[in-house]
């Protein structure tokens, strides 16, 4: 088969979740012996993190404005390569494209009520774009791939798609996420001493940043250690507004905001953290949860959406809308060393169930299944 894979943003320097997913899938597909040819369509960028191999060809096309690239450049370029199948990996796909398609629909948050407090132009544009595009492409797709049983059931229920048209394929985590010694003290690029809480919050309301910061304030009031909180890439004015609104000035001196953290540095951030807070209101999978567990870092996560499915029943599961409960678990980890060490092992054991190798093998099986159907 000649299989096209949309990977528009993988050459950009500041990558995010979906970029890493497709990047790792392609790298694993490169390792699998097969007679298929893959054509990976990307926009030009500085981080050339993927190169051609015998059966994987990198095709640069178009510019960086995603809707124009996806709706015009991608189908125009894909037609030149006489593809048997086009896999669009980032929730949307070209509306006018006569190729058989697979769509990875990571989530359908765009169909859920939108938080009016979200002032991010980028996030709001994405929300509108998905609402416009997704209903128009679902019927054209041979399969819908999603990343957890929670999201699969959500898609079946809310979009009315037959269950046999949906393939659930778990994400994995990169091999460098493991317990490791940080002899070069890479973590000090971001914070000067180990033993901190780490939180990947941002301005997206689903990340639950406000309640998590309230919980951190409650933790500080009761803790003797008063561990600092490392916040990745959070807007300072957004933080100041939360502090003023909730009268939690006690957190200001204990928070460190270093900006964007490179993915290759994250293993050292997890390994030097005391614990990782993954207290989202909703996640379709939650790769950071898996990464932290693979590093042996205790995780406090939510009892909602996919997080219990990925974290497992032995994880520390809290109600994300209850700051008191979050603070209680932070203090428990700090005061009960046996519980702390148990949670390190819980994460390590759980992470072994997931890998990008498994993800790629399941994708290949899906491509071949569709190929057989098309040949009939």
Query: Gyration radius, to the nearest Å?
Result: 21 Å
Which secondary-structure class do the elements indicate? Answer: alpha/beta
Distance between the termini: 14 Å
What's the pLDDT, averaged over the residues?
Answer: 94
- Helix fraction, binned, reads 40-55%
Q: Strand order, biggest sheet?
A: 3-2-1-4-5-6-7
- The helix-strand sequence is EHEEHEEHEHEEHEHEHEHEHEHHH
- Sheet with most strands: 7 strands, parallel
Shape: globular
How many DSSP-defined strands?
Answer: 13
- Tally of DSSP helical segments: 12
Strand content: 15-25%
Q: What oligomeric assembly is this protein in?
A: single chain
Please mark out the parts with pLDDT under 50 across 5 or more consecutive residues, or reply none.
none
Topology:
Blueprint: E1 2-6, H1 17-31, E2 37-42, E3 56-60, H2 66-80, E4 85-88, E5 101-104, H3 121-137, E6 141-146, H4 149-159, E7 166-168, E8 196-199, H5 209-222, E9 229-232, H6 236-246, E10 255-259, H7 266-272, E11 273-278, H8 287-294, E12 299-302, H9 307-311, E13 316-318, H10 323-335, H11 337-351, H12 356-375
Parallel strand pairs: 1-2, 1-4, 2-3, 4-5, 5-6, 6-7, 8-9, 8-11, 9-10, 11-12, 12-13
Helix pairs in contact: 1-12, 5-10, 8-11
